[in-house]
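This section describes the prediction task in plain terms. A model, or a person checking by hand, is given the sequence of a single protein chain and must write out its three-dimensional structure as a string of tokens. No templates, partner chains or ligands are provided. The sample shown here is typical of the held-out split.
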Amino acid sequence: MEKEYISKRYREWIKQLDGTSFYDELSRMDEKQIEDSFYKELAFGTGGIRGVMGIGTAKINEFVIARATQGLANYMIHKKLRTGLKKVVIGYDTRNNSEKYAKIAANVLMNNGIKTYLFSEALPTPCVSFAVRELECFLGIVITASHNPSEYNGYKVYEKKGCQITNEMADQIYDEIKKVGYFDIDITNQGNQYNFVNETIYDSYIQSVLKQSISSDHNADVKIVYSPLNGTGLKPVTQVLKLAGFDQVILVEEQKNPDGNFPTCKKPNPEEIEAMQLGIEYAKNEQADLVLATDPDCDRVSIAVKNKDDFRILSANELGCLLLDFICSNVKIQSDDVFMKTIVTTDLAELIAQDYGLRTINTLTGFKYIGEQIGLLEKKHTETSFVFGFEESCGFLRGTYVRDKDATVASLLICEMYAAYQSQGITLMDKLNEIYNKYGFCLNTQHSFKFDGASGSEKMNQIMDYVRYKVQTLGGYNVVLKKDYLPGIDNLPKSNVVKLFLDNNSSVIFRPSGTEPKLKVYFSIFGEAKSTCQTIEYKMVRWLTGITDSVLKD
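The expected answer:
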């Protein structure tokens, strides 16, 4: 039946696209290519849609983009919004087809009588989060696939407060999308002039970033190597650093200009060694001590720092702890100030926050939950101040001008921190070791266990149930507290996540991936030294492997 359904979809597309440039591509497909292109429809969720570009229902293309936008338009129309609220702002990154898809989305919205603002150039995703609020739009759209390889693209939606849409809103929009036919939409521009976002919005965004500055008392002559990884960070990051007084920013020429093919690295993810390698080579040649890289839509940032004769890429957990400590030691902390992190982010950050008198709010995985919590705080407690937030996947934010992670502000804070410590003769590695000496070394690692096939989901659920209801010890360590997020606790949405706190001051989180057939396990392990933590990790991973092997044999 599945093969018949795939074949039916394929025949419908080839019939509808007869006489177009897509027809030849479809007619040349072999059986495997047809299956890859039509075996499913891309689902729409809180992160929008994302996939490999190409023709078919399982790929990102102009028909999928138009259908999603028509569904979104229908959702807005059914809301019966006041005319003044029926507005959407659209942004896009430097990926292949991003500008084209953005204009198609704009055409569909305008053809539905919805006032639409379109950015006139590729800019960071946080600019859309900012513009939604500044322009008082009901929704924002950004065409991006973040740090995925070059063959990917995607479509992400923000609600009126500049935060990624909630599960409820995503479900309602998806219900509307599913009612729309792929070829029932007018994607042409019917003589409508594009209403480009005024440059003053971007200027206001830059000023809002600069207001988050922590310290101008530093050596601004430091050499910083920066790579936008051929993405959107070039303009805002270099501009902010220059305005903050950093005049010696050395750009990685091969990764400077927008290029959706990302020719120097297969995966433009600043967490990957390959993406950082060119910047590290530049730093060695230029005798610089800091390498900074942002991903294509400039919402994630990673750094490499000089460590003896080589460079070391800091993890997001290490960088986040350094930034948190730097911010707290340079601003006045009020009694009700808060720090936010996701539950899979290092427990060390909570100890640092507590030491400075900051209350920590833990959220579910995904920066959208931090954005939601910022909105709730502002709504309920006007005296409460959000000081800083970060997640273990290179997302950082200071300030409430956007409700998503922002690599531009993170880049500013990193450079200020680096320069301030250098003025004192302290390296970032020195400071990191100082933090470890004070609070104990903390090893943060993630392990994934893959469960393929039709029974994969069932087997993951078996393991989750075992952890949830039966586990009392893990790797020889006693469980002293178990947090089950499935019913919805700590004012958070329901989520299939379990966190175990052990009697060795470590914690382990179990979470099935939402996008892959994998069980993800996060360790946050405290010990006197790295070697001690690695020994503890080895014991716990052996225990975990034994459990998963047992389930797989059944």
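For orientation: The first helix runs from residue 2 to 16.
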